[in-house]
What we know:
2 domains, alpha+beta, 3 strands, 3-stranded antiparallel sheet
Amino acid sequence: DPDPRKQxxxxxxxxxxxxxxxxxxxxxxxxxxxxxxxxxxxxxLNREAEIQEARKCKLPxxxxxxxxxxxxxLWRHGKxxxxxxxxxxxxxxxxxxxxxxxxxxxxxxxxxxxxxxSDSSLALVRPQRLTTIGSDDR
Length: 138
């Protein structure tokens, strides 16, 4: 379990993202558009700089009742094993072999039921070097 002080600080930090107007921060829903034509809306995905400026603001009283559910949400988020849930809900057909000899081989399960009538087959494939568009190979 995390330190209770650190957990409380994280909960207050999360509440600044969820309820920005309560802390006097700008909101994504209320944007004052300047009169110039080249208006670029602010990026609200990362507002750490804005939160750092308003770091010492006091917790509004109307948010005190919300901190407990946010604490539960954050605690459960930390305890949840997302990778296990993902492998249960969406099992991957690609997995890496564990031995050092075949470290760069990938096991790909190929569904050959449509062609041969069998359930499935395994194929060993060497991974290809991936290049992105615009990268120069020198």
